[in-house]
Amino acid sequence: MSLQPIIRTLSQTLFAILVALPALAQQAAPPVRTTSIPATGYAGLDEYRESRISIYTDDFGQLARYREANAALAPPAAGESRVVFLGDSITDYWKLPDYFPGKPYINRGIDGQTTPEMLVRFRQDVIALHPKVLVVLAGTNDIAGVTGRTSNEDIEANYASMAELARAHHIQTVFASVLPVHDYTHDAEESFALRPRDRILALNKWLKDYCTKNQFVYLDYFSAVVDERGKLKRALADDGLHPTDAGYKIMASLAEKAIQTALAENRDR
Fold this sequence. Notes:
- The chain has 269 residues and is an alpha/beta fold.
- The chain is built from 14 helices and five strands.
- The protein has helices spanning 4-28, 43-51, 53-58, 64-72, 89-92, 96-99, 115-120, 122-125, 140-144, 152-168, 189-194, 197-214, 222-225, 245-268; strands spanning 83-87, 105-109, 133-137, 172-176, 217-219.
C-alpha cells in the first residue's frame, strides 16, 4: 500500500490548521478596552476621574463603603440624639470623635462624592440609621465636575430631595454652606480653578433661602473661614480645599450649635 496519499492528506490537513490558527487566536483574544472618561482640561481631575471608573460603573453610590459598619451599628438607645454627617472628603477626613467626644455622631462621608452619589446611598447611610439630625456638607465636587458637568439647579434639586426624604422620616436636616477655596499654594491652584467663587456664593444663597422657607437649619461655615479676598483662609487648608485641624475646630463649634438648634426644633414639633 502506498503511503503517498496518506502523507498528502496529512500535509493538507496540517496546512489548513496552520492557516486557521491566526484567525482562531484573534477570535479567542479578549476585546481591548478603549473606554475612557472624557477629558476636562484639568490634568489632576482627569487622572482622578480615570482612577474611579470602576466605582462609577460597578458601585456608583459606593454602597459597599459603609454596608458592614451599618449592619454592625445598634439602633439608637432610648433618649439618644444620634446625628449623621453626610458628605464628601471634607466630611470623610473629619475624625468626629476627636472634635465631638462622647457624642453619638456618625460619619458617613465618602471622598470624592457628589450629591447624586449621596442620594443613591441616602436610604442605607441615613434613613436606616434612624438619626434625629442629619448634617449635609456637599456640592463642592458637583461644582468641580467630578462626576460630570452639573448646574447649580441640579445640585439644588438633589439638596431638596435629601431634605424631603429626611423630613418624611422625621429627621431634622442641617444644610452646611459650601466652603470657599484658595489658591495660595501650588497644590491648590487646580482645586481653586474648578470651583468658581460666584457659583459657591450662588449655591450658598439658595441653600440659606431654602432653609428659611422650609424650616431647615442653615449652617454657615463660609462666613467663618473666608478671608478678605473671598478665599479660604490660608492657615485653614494646605491644599486649598480640605480643612486643617484649625479649620475643623471652627467647623465643629458651628456644627454643634446648629445640631442643638435642630434638636430643639425637633422637640418642639
